[in-house]
Design brief:
Layout (H helix, E strand, L loop, with lengths): L1 E6 L3 H12 L4 E6 L23 H18 L6 H34 L5 E6 L5 H10 L4 E5 L1
Helix pairs in contact: 2-3
C-alpha cells in the first residue's frame, strides 16, 4: 500500500517522519516542490486567462469622462469632439492604472495569505499499517492524504 501526503515545510514534517520510523515504517520518500516563479501576465491570451481584467474600470471611466468632456467642450475652445476624446483617453488611463495598482497589491496579499503544499511525502507500508499511518499524518497537520491499495 502507498500513502501520499502533502505538508508545509515545517517541524511537523520532521516529527511525522520520526514517528513513522519509530513505528517501524522505513519506506518513506519526501519530495520538495518548486514554487512558481512566473510573473503576472498583464494581458490574457486565447488559451490562458486568469480571470482578472484590467480594462473594466478603464472603459467605465472613459465613457463617463468622455461624456463630461464633450458636454464641457461646447463652451471650451477646442470643441466637444476633442474634449470628448481627451476625456475618454484620460478616463481610460486613470481606470487602467487603478486596476493595475489594485491587481499588484491584491496579488501580493493573495500569495502571502494563501496556503500551498511544499512537500509530498510518499510512504510504502503494509495494508495492516495503513490506518495507523493515516492517523499519524492527520495528527501532524497533513494538508491532504491519499491511499492507494
Amino acid at each position: 500500500m502507498q500513502i501520499y501526503a502533502t505538508f508545509d515545510h515545517s517541524a511537523y514534517l520532521e516529527m511525522v517522519i520520526t514517528k513513522l520510523e519509530q513505528q517501524g515504517i522505513e519506506d518513506i520518500f519526501a519530495v520538495p516542490l518548486d514554487k512558481q516563479k512566473e510573473d503576472i501576465k498583464l494581458f490574457d491570451t486565447i488559451h490562458k486567462s486568469d480571470g482578472i481584467s484590467l480594462f473594466n474600470k478603464g472603459m467605465f471611466l472613459a465613457v463617463i469622462f468622455s461624456v463630461i468632456g464633450a458636454s464641457r467642450g461646447f463652451v471650451l475652445e477646442w470643441g466637444p469632439i476633442y474634449w470628448g476624446l481627451i476625456g475618454a483617453g484620460g478616463g481610460f488611463l486613470l481606470g487602467f492604472i487603478t486596476d493595475l495598482i489594485l491587481m499588484k497589491l491584491h496579488h501580493k496579499k493573495k500569495v502571502l495569505k494563501g496556503k500551498s503544499s511544499e512537500v509530498i511525502l510518499i510512504i510504502d507500508c503494509h495494508t495492516k499499517d495503513g490506518e495507523l499511518v493515516e492517523k499519524i499524518l492527520w495528527e501532524h497537520l497533513a494538508m491532504g492524504v491519499a491511499k492507494i491499495v
